[in-house]
Amino acid sequence: MKNSKKYKTSTATPYKQLSFADFLDQYFSILNAIYMNPRNKKSHELGCLYFDLNGGVGTDPKTGDGSPIIFHKKAIEHGIKYRAHIYELDKETFGKLAVSTSGFPDDFHIYNQDHSVIVDKLDGIYQPLQHGIIYCDPTDLDINFDLLKVMAKYYPKLDIVINVAAGSWKRSVTVHDWERLPDILSTIKGKLIFRKPIMQSQWTILVCTNFKGFKAWESRHFQDLDTDLGREWYNKLFYSANDLKKMNPQLPGF
């Protein structure tokens, strides 16, 4: 994931922000339900761990709050204790992020570093009870799957959330022989939930989790492979029209 690229917005940015906010509303509701169980006392004490691999400016005058601010506000709204680690390599962008998050809690950490440094910090750590989120919203399609695999190993209960233009990825599958997204993600986590694609680029948000209890969140436009609509969206997101003409894709059993 080339996180040195300059932060930029597009016509899809407001949708991406809404998708992330909708995901957090659902996720934090589930997390609070988990915390209510006395058996999960340790997880509750640990709180929610949040990694944002592409922090951006924090708040943009044109498009509003970005992912770090959205996460912070939603955590407060749902009464979630958290520790956040936000990575932004571009110095100018980081400066704006620092201004946007000035006065935030001590557990909200921002770094003017490449997010690949996370690997060094994970050495020797294994936290099977820690719930949380790894959020990826790259400027382009350079997603660091190797990093995600390592993080998933050390933190098996952290869910991976990716904002991606599925249409652009499909073109790269055809033109550059890239591997399909769900084939890659299935090697990291056991279940995939996805949001309704929009616009020509088919923007979507992918939620990769090991929690089999996650179901489609229809009220927030998220589906999985257990519904007819989910299977329809899945085909649209990950297979081109030519692919579907040539084959009847066997959907992976996430």
Architecture overview:
There is one protein chain. The protein is α/β, with parallel strands linked by helices. The protein has one domain (13-246): Rossmann fold (3-Layer(aba) Sandwich). The protein has 10 helices and 10 strands. It has helices spanning 13-35, 41-46, 67-77, 91-100, 118-122, 145-154, 166-176, 181-185, 228-238, 241-246; strands at residues 48-52, 59-60, 64-65, 82-87, 108-111, 131-136, 158-165, 191-195, 203-209, 222-223. The strands form 2 sheets. It has an 8-stranded mixed sheet, sandwiched between helices. Helix 1 (13-35) packs parallel to helix 3. The longest helix is centred in the first third of the chain and has 23 residues, at 13-35.
Key traits:
254 residues, alpha/beta, Rossmann fold, 8-stranded mixed β-sheet, two-stranded antiparallel sheet, 10 helices, 10 strands, globular
Give the oligomer, counting copies of the same chain as homo and different chains as hetero.
Answer: single chain
Unreliable segments of 5+ consecutive residues: none
Principal-axis shape equals globular
Give the CATH class: Alpha Beta
The fourth-level CATH homologous superfamily is Vaccinia Virus protein VP39
Overall pLDDT: 88
Count of all domains: 1
* H and E string: HHEEEHEHEHEHEHHEEEHH
Radius of gyration: 18 Å
Structural class: alpha/beta
Percent strand equals: 15-25%
Give the strand line-up of the largest sheet: 5-4-1-6-7-9-8-10
Number of contiguous helices: 10
Major sheet size, sense and barrel closure: 8 strands, mixed
Proportion of residues in helical segments: 25-40%
Number of strands: 10
Distance between the termini: 25 Å
CATH architecture descriptor name: 3-Layer(aba) Sandwich
Annotated CATH topology: Rossmann fold
